[in-house]
Structures are given as C-alpha cells and as structure tokens.
Please model this.
Amino acid sequence: MARETDAGHHCDLGVTWVKRLIYNKSEHDVAHRVPKLGALTRKLTSKHWHCTSAFQAMASPPFKPYWRPVAGPILGGPTDPYSWVFFVVSQIGGRHRPVAVVSSLTDNSNDMETQIHGYALTAACHRIITIFSDKANHRAIRAELSLAAGYYVRDGTREYSPELVELPELNRRDFNPTDRRRDWYHAGVREFPFISACLLQGVAFNTQQCYAHPAFPEPLGTVYRDTSIEWGMVVIDITNLDAVSYGIVGFSVGPMTFIGSRYDEDHPPDLRGGMVFAFVRGELGVLDKVRPRRAMSAAEYMAKFEGEGHFPETPTKNVDQLIAKVPLVNVAAMDLIWPPSVEEDIDISLSSLHIDASKSLLDQYQATTTLIQRVLAMEDPDISILKQARTMPNFREVFSRVLLQDQARLLSMRSSDRLIRMAFVNREHLSLEQLNNLPVEAISDILSVPKLAKVTSISICIDRVQGTPAQLAHALSQVERLRKLYFLQSPTQGDEALSALLFAELAANPQILHRASVMFAGAYSAGLRKRFWLPTSQATNGVQVAPLDVFPVQQILVLDQRYDTKRHAYVHLGDALLRPERFTAGFLIYIQSLLTSEDIFTTQPMNLFSFSSAPSFLDGDPETAAEVSPILAESFAVPKYGLLCDHDDPRSWAEMRDLVPGGWTVVVSLETHSASRALQSPYRLRCIQYAFIRARQHIMVDNPPIMPPGPEELEVVGLKEFLSATASEIADDIVDRRIQEVAERIAKIPYEGSLPFKERISMLFQEDAAEILVGFLEDAGKYKEVLRAARDENLEKQK
Model:
C-alpha cells in the first residue's frame, strides 16, 4: 500500500509539474515543446488514472463542484481588473462614509485609449491625491464635509444610509460598446458637487501626459464586489486633508474551467483526448480564492500585475517617487463601500454593517456627544469644560451638530458669541453652512462681532438663507475684509439657479469680485450634469455675465492645420471664472494636450479640465498642485455630434461670442513645422502658434468684417504682454520657464523631432491672427445651426 501511495504521490507531482510548465509558458514556447510534453503528459496522466483506480474502493467525502484556472495554454492570460471605481471617503459620525464616487468603464472597442491600466492607474491615483492635498481646495472641501455630517447623521443620532447600488457586471469579451459608453446627461444631482468635481477631474484627465479616460459620477450608495470580473477599486480617505491616504484593491482575472464532478476532476475538460495543447477559452473568473480585505500601494499593484498585464513602458519615475510618500488607507475606510459578499447571505444594507474595527470609534463618538449635550443643557453652559473637551475625538463635528439642534436657543444665549466661535470659526474662516433658516441680518450681526474681526472668509449654504440673493450680496459687500466666499448648496435640495442669481447680483456691482475669490457649488453641480449655470443673454457687457475686468478671457479659437485640413475647435470661457494668472496656468496645460494626444474624440472635451484643475499660480508645478475651479459647463453641455455636422469636422461647439473692448480672445494654430520636410519618416515636427487678441471696437459675430481687421482695429499680443496688461506682477522669466517646460514635454512624444522651444511654441503675426479670426467669424453661423440641430436631436433622444 505504501508503494501505491508513493506512486500516487509521484503521479500527482508529475501531472502538477506538467500543468505548471504548460501554464507558465508562452504560446511560442509551447509550440516548440509540443511533441515531448505531449508524450510525457499522456504517460503521466495514464499512470495517474491507474494509480487513482487503486483507491476507488476507499470511502471519499461528497464531491463539491468548483472552478479552477485553465491548465493548458490560454487565450488571454490573467490580468488586473478591466474597469475601476474610485471612492472618496471621510470619517463622519464614527464611520468612514463615501462623499464622492466615480467610475471609469473601459470601452472594449477602444481599450488602448480608454482603459486605466498600469501607469495610467497610478497616475490617476496621484492626480486625485494632488487635488485633495492642494490647500487651495481645502476650505471648500471642509465646508461640504460639514454638510455631509448633517446628511449622514440626522435628527441628532439617526444615521442615513443611501440605497445600495451595484456596478454593471460586464464581460470584456463581449463586444458591447453601447453598454460601456455612458454620458453625464443621465447623472443626477451630486450631493457634494465640489468634492465630486475634484474626484471626476482626477480620474478623467492626466495633466502631465494628457491622457483622457471615461469618467462617470456614481451614486453614493455604490458598492464594490471582490467577485467582479470587471471592476477594481481605488479608495481615497480625506478625513485628514493634510495627510490624504489611498489604496488600490484589485484581484487577478483570467480564464477558468468548471469542475462539476469527480469525472471532470479525473478527466479535466481542458486536458482531455490528448488535446492538452489546444488553446482553451474558458470562462473569465476571479483567480484569487483568498481575497484579503486590505489595499495595495501603487508599487504593490504594479508588482502584482506587471508580469500578467504586460504594462507598456511609461514615464513613471516622478509619479512613483511622489506617490511612494503617500500613506495607505486603513482597512476601516473600506467597511461600507466593500460589504461582505452576497454569497455569505448577509444583510448588506449600510445601516446594518457593524464592523468590529469601528466599534471603538463609534463609542468615542457617542461619548463626545453625551458630554457636549450635558454641558449645553445647562442654563449658562460652562465654557471651560468645553475647552477642555476639545481634544476628544470628533469634537468639532459633534459640537456643531448638537448646537444646531436648537438654533433659536443658540442665538439667544448670553454665551452665543463664544459658542459660535468655538463651533464655527477656524482661524480666519467662518463656517455657517450648517445653519438652517439663517437670516441675512444674522450673518451681518455675526460678522460684526469684534472678536471675529480676523475672519476673512466665510462659507454659507445659500438655499438655507432667509433673504433674497440681492440682500445677501449687499450684506457681504459691506464687509470689506472678506477675501474668500464659499456658497454651498444643500445635499438634498441643490438649486443651481440660485447660484446663478447670486453671481449675477455680485457681477452687477463687482467691487466684491475684485477683492474676493468666490466659489459656487451650483457651478460644479451644473458642470457635473452638463448643464449651463450662467445665462447667455442679458449680460451687462453684451457677451457674458462675468465682468471682463475680473475674468477677461472670453473664448479660445483653435485652428488645426496639421494634416492639410482646417478644423475648428471653440472653447467658451465665460463661465470658468478664471483670473489672468490662473487662466495662463491652465492654458499651458491645454495647448500641450492639443499635441500630445492623437485621439481627439477621447481627449476633447476632457482636456478642458486643464483650466478647471491647474496650479493656483503660474510658477506652480502641475504634478504637485491643482486648484479646482468651475468646470466649463457650457462647453461640456454642447452635444458632441449632430445631424448637420460636417464629415471632415464632425464636432459641434458652443456658440462663438462677439468681441468687445475689454475682453480677450485667444487664437491657437496647430501646425506642422516647415522643417519636417527635411526629416526622414516617421519623424515629424509639430508646433503651436498663438496670440491674445482684443478688439478695439465691437466686432459682431452676426455681422463679421469682410477684411481681416488691422492693428488699429485689433490688438494682438503674446502671453507676456497679456499678463502685463492684466496681472503685471508676473515675472517674464516665470513665463519663459513654463513655456519651455511645455515644449520639452511635447518633444518627448514618440517620433517627434527636436526643435528649439521658441519655434515649438511661438506667437502669431498680427495679420495671421486676424485672418484666423475672420475664418471663425465666417463659419460661426454654420456652427450655430449645427449646434441648434444637435441640441434638438439630443432632446429627442432623452424623451
């Protein structure tokens, strides 16, 4: 019996050895080893069956069907997930809860351009972390997190749980582009639009390599399943904005064979009939039987999947070094977004999940709540006790929430000023977004308190204010020390129109816009839904609501002449609210994107995120700085294609605006450099010429000039001159350095020949800029008709 056991053991080892050898070899290797390995396999498997028959009389436990990886050569090896879902979470009410969710679904008809894979995934992680770590975004983020506290913990203690939403389970082998292409038109109102806009832009556009990826806002109840053959997950924890953490969760996916009986186990379907070397398709499945609840770093992800996925070589050095310094998320951050498997037959509603790791947090949260409630129940609360309690976990969140349960009493208490400072003042910022039914007069009274004289910024939820937009605008304009204004909207009652009305009031008397920056949640909400947020008519300057002396750039006209064609692209900037330096930082990223991506249909309009997520200052590094500003809502709202679109120029664009004194239009020409003719194929030299133009007299789109306007009618300048005219504090050497950096990145494109950077990016002559302008004016009527037809067609599709 011992001999039979040894024989059986050696038979198993032999078969296992052959399977491993076959499984780990490439198709080429297998083809050269077929004769020898085939004979050896038949010999071993025959002996294996003989050995097995010796044990048939022995009792065996009931057989349990299972799946296992295909043993022979396969069509398509193990890979990382095909699509990814990105969660932003923060600790609210003792739990890590989602505040933004974005999916990136690969289009399997164009996966080379649309898949977030390898370097592209690590770059997306780094880009998201950069955006959430940028201090320019922190106050707006914290204001929405304050609203999130009231959204998730209601009536003091009642937890709200969004309805669970499952991601679509698709199979990459099925050619289903229709199911994989989703448009933002179908996205509802986001509860926290600024945070959602931060995440969306981080996923959708890589500003360094100018890659664009599909990105779609998802409901907050969306969950990740580790049994999915489609999805992987990225988690970003913004509980501490000064130390944002992240993690990647993904398991190997590959072809598998179903073993449904002992016969299948003894006669594997993928090893039968001597056809061990026939390629086996199998069915896709998750190969990892054990799927630990932990997140990988970018380095771990690349190490795990690099051999399986055959990632292309990409410039990862800077990103690798930067993201290596970022901490990994705690396991507790994934409790609600990665619930237990459905197969375990567990109630998975978010409200019923009680993970042991979070019990201590919940206990601490409740203890803090109890103490604050007892102190505030006193007729004259003892402030000294509250000051000592500041070190307790979640103190500020709980303190403000308890105060808000009785706002009338708060405003009538003798110690109300001190309580408001403790709960709602953080250094120079006053957070009033959680207050309901807040009278405009109360805002003025609070700001006039002498001990709040150092407050220079304020956040308000405008649909919770008692008063008209005109009254609120007037009250804030009286406080000259204010430098930053954050206008939020309720998570459950977002009103984008109210943001537009308030901005129109501020624009009508723009003194406050000259001295203060403004953030409107409605602008982000409209952009996420691809809807206009500012009116296009009845503007005081005839072209846009935003005052041109504050936000001077009206539009960009792009002429693509690289391939013996003259394609037009138009970008409307009237709703972007960009000051000159901030516009310039985004413009340099944008012109790089025009040359570094051949796939304009994927990149555009995603490359417009160049303007809405760029460094605050021109000398900022786009790799480490990204201030988020309003998404260009009108440009995104335009349907991409329409019935009247030209075959050679199939896109539709926003309507071109009149040129008026005081407003600037940027003209960009994409060209093939004349030196390309001297280079041998496949080398090419592509360059950019541009100009900033300003009309000295009104130039109407509906009544364009017959001849190109001359210097006396049209001012044409370069980037330095534009900045000098609008923001003279910018040094020329900073402009030169940034232009050179862009030129160097363009030069790194494969097969791109070398050019001096001054020839790679140069200024148009006056007559050339004027001629391009006239060409756009002549075609404006045609594009207006194309746009109107595309909108009508799109409305019909949505019915």
User: Anything to note?
Assistant: The chain is about 40% helix and 15% strand. Residues 83-251+291-353 form one domain. The radius of gyration is 31 Å. The first helix runs from residue 2 to 24.
